[in-house]
Amino acid sequence: MPELQIAEFFSLCFMAIALGMDAFSVGLGMGMQLLRLKRIAIIGITVGFFHIAMPFLGILIGQYISTKIEGFAIIGGGLLLITIGVQMILSSFNHEDKQLLSPVGFGLAIFALSVSLDSFSVGLSLGMSGVRTALALVLFGFFSMLLTWTGLLLGRKARGLLGIYSELLGGSILCAFGLRIIFG
């Protein structure tokens, strides 16, 4: 019996890492903005929270509703990332413009929601599989937070290396990731 629990734990860890890779990729692009370490910490915690909340909502809402709205949620998340990416690209050409969506307040919620939408559908399947839900949710939140921090810090480092082109690259990464979400 303990071998089954260990196998389940590692399976959940791999699933959590796979879900957190979205946050890592987008964090890499977002990290190329001028972000302070305190903001990076807050972003990671928020993304971790959303990676707990979205599967939990998926579990609560159920299979019937998810088949109706899942496609719209994925397209919406992709469009949000593209919007943030285009805004970053445009602001790289004109440094006087204020950012349309920055990772603060509402912009942070939009960012965290867009990278955690895929965990909603995972939550739907978790509710029906009999997996220990609390453990899965904690692992999803932990790994997505950790991977977001890693992406943001690597992006921040790349900003120092790339100089003025970092925001252009970061916006391009976000646009590409948004398109990948929409078109699979």
UniProtKB/TrEMBL annotation:
The keyword Membrane applies. Its main location: membrane. It holds the Pfam family Mntp. InterPro entries: Mntp/YtaF (IPR003810), Put_MntP (IPR022929). The lineage of its organism: Bacteria, Bacillati, Bacillota, Bacilli, Bacillales. PANTHER family: MANGANESE EFFLUX PUMP MNTP-RELATED. It comes from the Bacteria. This is Putative manganese efflux pump MntP. It comes from Radiobacillus deserti. Probably functions as a manganese efflux pump. Belongs to the MntP (TC 9.B.29) family. It is found in: Cell membrane. One of its GO terms (cellular component) is plasma membrane.
